[in-house]
Amino acid sequence: MQRYKCIISYDGSGFSGYQVQPNKRTVQKELEAVLAKMHKGDSVKVTGSGRTDAGVHAKGQVIHFESPLLIPEEKWEVALNSMLPEDISVLAVIKVDASFHARFDAFGKEYRYVLYLSSIRDPFQRNYACRYPYPLNLGLMKEASKYFLGTHDFTSFCAAKTEVKEKIRTIETIDFIMEDNYLTLRFVGNGFLYNMVRILVGTLLAVGSGDMKPEEIPGILEKRDRRFAGKTAPANGLYLWEVHYEENN
Amino acid sequence: MQRYKCIISYDGSGFSGYQVQPNKRTVQKELEAVLAKMHKGDSVKVTGSGRTDAGVHAKGQVIHFESPLLIPEEKWEVALNSMLPEDISVLAVIKVDASFHARFDAFGKEYRYVLYLSSIRDPFQRNYACRYPYPLNLGLMKEASKYFLGTHDFTSFCAAKTEVKEKIRTIETIDFIMEDNYLTLRFVGNGFLYNMVRILVGTLLAVGSGDMKPEEIPGILEKRDRRFAGKTAPANGLYLWEVHYEENN
């Protein structure tokens, strides 16, 4: 058996998220269906670096699987892309050691959230950016974002139903990239809890619109209670941008 | 009755084209459904500058309709956008003289065709650009495009089933805009026949790939026979970009 790491990209608009669910179209299900075909019906389990929700996109999701097939890396790529639907693309296939694990070995992730700051609807962006038509104070948002940097218990900033117990995470970077009418928020950290990026964005929007003050953030972190943070921003603006591994993987 | 001109944009991916067809989702049908609601069930006829096919997009399609409602222009815009589906957007509503006609008064149009020159599939571009993974000789394409400029009988460059009899059209401009991996072909002319832009693009791709020579174009125009031109390029790369009227409209 050979273990393969794949970097994949998908347009989340047409999927009920990454993970397999009964009677739903998911990314994992499409990948496993194609791998089963290539293995004459034998099921092949695909393991992702983590889930993404319905409507959330990926520019660089990472998965792994094992196969007895002796196919060079580039041919895997061509074969998978020829069988996968148009809204999933395999960007790279890399042979890895049998010990590699897409989830456990990831030591960091980058997410981006794209806001379209405009009072005019753009039909071409409806699935790919979250439109925000009101004024935003970028200076206050940047000030607020600094309180999230470093290591914190992010209980207030994840969905109340999150199953993971350990809610301490480290955020290294929050960047603000303004280009034309688009504001992209770039988050780099060692891991993100369920809905965490979307709640961070919702909270930063509350600060930017004047509903919340930057100085309130430390208090919200301390509460360890989802109800004190901002709203969960919509899925359509969120991209899993990159998953980070040690260099030899 | 007041006549209104509207500039609209739509993502063609989810539509069976612009024009009403039984049991199909079309742009005109969505517009007329919303206008009927605003007029308490009375039907309001919408007239477009021309049709667009299934999958073809519009950045600046123009339509007109008449209404007895006394609503200021900006309120029309807000009302229509609040009721229309997310893949159609009204960019402007302008009061016009009762003699204005979106189709008959249009003296020119601009179409753009977007090619994504890459061997890698991009799931986010699948509906918005036509991927072309083979080498292209841009110099030869530009040379060929010059034969299309000016006034010609474009019978060879429209779908064989085209009903319009008069097939003489004038193309003013064909521009080549290269940006990153995207090649955008910009066509400006006094009018375009059914499938004409897509067949022009297919023919230019045949030249760029070496299957046809630029000097063959005049002969193909003379044949007045669709079979001698190149293939019809896919709908997903095509955008009705702008419709031109006299300044006071």
What does this structure look like?
2 copies of one chain form a homodimer. Chain A folds into 2 domains: 2-96, Pseudouridine synthase I, catalytic domain, N-terminal subdomain (Alpha-Beta Plaits), CATH 3.30.70; 108-244, Alpha-Beta Plaits. Helices cover 21% and strands 29% of the residues of chain A. Chain A contains 5 helices and 10 strands; from the N terminus they run βαββαβββαβββααβ. Chain A has helices spanning 27-38, 73-83, 138-146, 196-208, 217-223; strands spanning 2-10, 47-48, 57-67, 88-96, 108-116, 130-131, 150-153, 168-179, 182-189, 238-244. In chain A, strands 1, 2, 3, 4, 5, 6, 7, 8, 9 and 10 form a 10-stranded mixed sheet that branches. In chain A, α3 (138-146) packs across α4 (196-208). The interface between A and B is medium-sized, with 17 and 17 residues. Chains A, B: Its EC number is 5.4.99.12.
Question: How would you sum up the global shape of chain A?
Answer: globular
Oligomeric status of the shown chains?
homodimer
CATH architecture of the largest domain in chain A: 2-Layer Sandwich
- At the first level of CATH, what is the class of the largest domain in chain A? Alpha Beta
Q: What's the tally of helices of chain A? A: 5
GO molecular function (chains A, B): tRNA pseudouridine(38-40) synthase activity
Subunit structure (chains A, B): Homodimer.
EC number (chains A, B): 5.4.99.12
Active site (chains A, B): 53
Label this structure with key terms.
2 domains, 10-stranded mixed sheet, alpha+beta, homodimer, 10 strands, 249 residues, Alpha-Beta Plaits
